[in-house]
Specification:
Elements (H helix, E strand, L loop, with lengths): L1 E4 L5 E7 L2 E7 L4 H36 L3 E7 L5 H13 L3 E7 L2 H9 L5 E7 L11 E17 L15 E3 L6 H12 L8 E3 L3 H10 L4 E5 L5 H7 L4 E3 L5 H7 L3 E6 L15 E13 L4 H15 L23 H8 L3 H8 L4 H16 L2
Length: 375
């Protein structure tokens, strides 16, 4: 074996055996190999960067449409429950979603806006007895959330009225056009032989009706409203106004399954003055939280969480935990509401779905973008 070194720094090794000569050439390591590996790493990093960017874009495009930035909810302006509406808005705001409250004249207008694609409304509180699956196939219920009593105030301190038939011939405010009050009032009055041919039925909103009743311009005011509605609060403490206790309340419930009976306890408005002086038997309608069927599941769960926080507390006409209830007298429950309410998992299910809200995903996407920038 003969070894030598050339001027070009090339090691040559000659093996001499049986007249066969072979030469081994060994090329020393150079900088070109190191640079090649570096270029491969850079190329791989660039490819990974594009993959992550595409993934972030895909997640953004998928998640944000599932949880919109803004939702519109129709509410009755003079029904009362102002604090309830604000709590809905606050719950949505915590998740980075703007809840717009669209004020209407009544539950019928709520329903009309919910059914109209042009209104932009996808959520509404609707009284039961206004629609059914055939009339509103595009709608679904998230359950009932409370009672809306029918208040019948009358101006006559020297007499006690306990039947609707006694209102014949009087000037009666039956609510504005498009209101649930007007629809229900006209139906109940017609049952008692009362219509516009024998009684003056006035289209007045609750606040105006209460003012005119106190002033003595009308004799009766009928309104579907919450106990905290300004018109109700005013009339309950007015000295010349009485609240009708309906003697045939159970009969109306038997005739109209969507109705129920409730009792306003004596002294509720003013205990020292005993107003009202005795328990008042009333009829009421359950109110449902209704959505469009195509409303995203994440929004439905957020609505259910808000409804649980807002409507589960005890009240004048309801027990603690009675609402929201897994029932849809007029419309079927949405699959999401049926699962959450029936299994009593609204809170835990909401916490899972809340991970898909814009606020949460915006935070995650920013983290992902930050991690990508480190490559």
């Amino acid at each position: 074996m003969v070894s030598c070194q050339s001027d070009t720094n090339l090691d040559l090794t000659f093996n001499v055996s049986d007249d066969r000569v072979t030469r081994d050439e060994t090329v020393p390591a150079t900088k070109s190999g190191w640079f090649g590996r570096r270029y491969l790493l850079v190329a791989a990093a660039i490819i990974l960067l594009f993959i992550l960017a595409a993934g972030i874009f895909g997640i953004t495009a998928y998640i944000y449409p599932l949880f919109p930035r803004a939702v519109a909810m129709a509410i009755v302006a003079e029904r009362g429950g102002r604090s309830e509406y604000e709590r809905y808005r606050q719950t949505f705001a915590k998740q980075g979603v703007q809840l717009t409250l669209v004020r209407t004249e009544g539950f019928i207008e709520n329903l009309a806006m919910l059914r109209s694609l042009d209104s932009g409304v996808s959520v509404a509180l609707v009284q039961n007895g206004l629609t059914d699956p055939q009339q509103s196939p595009e709608l679904a219920s998230l359950g009932t959330v409370g009672y809306v009593p029918l208040w019948i105030f009358y101006l006559n301190p020297h007499a006690s009225l306990d039947q609707l038939a006694q209102l014949r011939g009087m000037r009666v405010a039956v609510g504005p056009t498009g209101s649930g009050t007007r629809k229900l009032a006209l139906e109940l009055l017609a049952r008692n032989g009362i219509d516009e041919s024998n009684t003056e039925l006035l289209t007045l909103p609750p606040n105006e009706a209460s003012e005119r009743l106190v002033a003595g311009n009308i004799q009766v005011a009928m309104m579907l409203a919450a106990p905290d509605a300004p018109a109700v609060q005013r009339l309950l403490v007015s000295p010349n106004i009485k609240l009708m206790s309906i003697s045939h309340a159970d009969t109306y419930v038997a005739l109209y399954p969507f109705l129920t009976t409730v009792v306003l306890p004596a002294g509720f408005a003013d205990l020292p003055q005993e107003r009202p002086p005795s328990d008042v038997k009333m009829i009421a309608i359950k109110m449902s939280l209704v959505v469009r069927r195509d409303l995203q599941s994440a929004v439905q769960y957020l609505l259910l969480e808000a409804a649980t926080q807002i409507h589960s507390s005890p009240g004048v006409f309801q027990k603690a935990g009675q609402f929201p209830a897994a029932e849809g007298p007029d419309l079927p429950l949405s699959p999401d509401a049926s699962t959450a309410l029936s299994a009593a998992l609204v809170g835990s299910t909401y916490r899972t779905i809340s991970n898909h809200t814009p606020t949460c995903w915006g935070h995650r996407l920013s983290l992902a973008a930050g991690a990508t920038s480190l490559l």
